[in-house]
Amino acid sequence: MAQIKTEEKQKSLHKKEEKMRIKQQIAAEKQRQKEAASALKFLRPDQCMKQMIVCVDSGLLEHLGSDILLQVLDSLDCKYYIESQRIPHSITWKRKIFSRTPNSDGCQEETAVEKEVLLVMQPSYFLRRLSSLVQNANPDSQQSAPDLTHLCPFHNLEDPSIVSYSVVVIGLDTYQWYNQNRQLPQELITGLENATLQLGPEQSMTRHQIEEALVVLQLRGNIHVLFQETWQELAQHVSAVTRAVAQRPYKKHQEKQLFSFCAKGKWASGVHISKGGKGLQETWLKQIQQFNRVSPAMAAAIAQAFPSPSLLLQAYQECNTDADRQLLLSNLQIRTEDSKTERRIGPDLSRRVYLFMVSTNPELVLDLSC
CA 61 from chain center: how many Å? Predict the structure, then answer.
């Protein structure tokens, strides 16, 4: 008897320990969900811009028009700092991240560097570097094409597959037009339409050579080059990139969510189904209304005749031929308060519902009128 009592005490102790362990796991899971919800709050579209920091290289302030960029940054909901960057004349982004440590009750603020770099390049430097690389290419080497990735100071930095590098060249067309037209007097330029002007090596770069360089930079270096004429366009581009970078984590989070289109709440046209099955009838109604050209009255007629999908499938099994199955719902009466004439479901919707319920082909087109 003593041994039995001892075993019962041990079993009771084990049950208490198991209950305590499960209780701790539930509490830890609730805390984790609470922290995840708190972190997600700062990533929402209405809050994400407040967590962004735009870092502008101090060298950009030397150019005329940089005040336009600062004015646009002032109008945004984010902060911006003027500080020296690893890449001169570049713009980078940082994000404030709030994390909770195990030994503290509050959230700690940290700063994470975004994998996004934007280099602002003047047309004179861009053409001079491009011309130098093209002229210094060794024709006897196995690789006849020059390594144009050295056009931008990104080749010795982080992997372009991890960091997104982009270049903005401001005023290239205006620069080329000005340098070509100032070489000769105006009266001589008008008469030399087919003549070749004596230009410098960087000024003689053709549009075809520039486009070839863009292709090489895009394919080999994963570097995107954008040509803009004014600082106002650059400021608008920086604003758009800032918003895109700010909303990126939230969009990635939304993509990972399973069946985000079946959210709860009336605002999302969803139906909450209780454990007792309340809400299944309304869900069946909404599923029928997802077909094209189906009104609530038509869906109600089908749901009233067959209150659940299983009953409709059972009715299909009782039919003798496939034609009878396709026309099973065609004679159902549609009842509306305002309609004085008799209406029926019709063969078209009856056929579409039947194919939807029994077909195993995911590429099948139900609506032939689309």
Answer: 32
Tell me how far CA of residue 324 lies from CA of 31, 327, 330, in angstroms.
56, 5, 10
Q: How far apart are CA 82 and CA 99, in angstroms?
A: 26
Backbone φ, ψ for residue 336 (5° rounding): -130, 155
Q: How many CA atoms lie less than 13 Å away from 76 in the CB half-sphere? A: 26
Q: How many CA atoms lie within 13 A of 329 on its CB side?
A: 26
45 close to 250: Cβ distance less than 8 angstroms: yes
Question: What confidence score (pLDDT) does residue 239 get?
Answer: 92
272-311: pLDDT as tens digits: 777 777 888 888 888 898 888 888 889 999 999 999 999 9
Residues whose CB is less than 8 angstroms from the CB of residue 220 and which lie 6 or more positions away in sequence, other chains included: 148, 149
Q: What is the DSSP code string of 314-342?
A: HHHHH-SSHHHHHTTTTTPEE--SS--S-
pLDDT at residue 53 in the model = 92
Residues of the chain below pLDDT 50: 138-144, 184-199, 260-265, 267
**Mean of per-residue pLDDT scores for the chain:** 79
Separation CA 56–CA 356 (nearest Å): 56
Distance CA 221, CA 165 (A): 9
Helix (H, G, I), strand (E, B) or coil at 133: helix
Cα 203–Cα 208–Cα 212 angle in degrees, nearest 5: 105
Residue type (1 letter), 1: M
Q: Tokens in use for 232?
A: 């106002």
Q: Which two tokens stand for residue 269?
A: 């046209």
Q: HSE on the CB side for 42, CA within 13 Å?
A: 14
As a whole number of angstroms, the distance between CA 66 and CA 320 comes to: 78
pLDDT at 270: 62
Tell me the Ramachandran region of residue 265: left when phi exceeds 0, alpha when psi lies from -120 to 50, beta otherwise: left
Cβ atoms of 153 and 159 within 8 Å: the answer is no
Q: pLDDT tens-digit profile of 64-113? A: 888 999 999 999 888 999 998 888 889 999 988 876 665 555 567 788 88
Classify 116 as helix, strand or coil.
strand
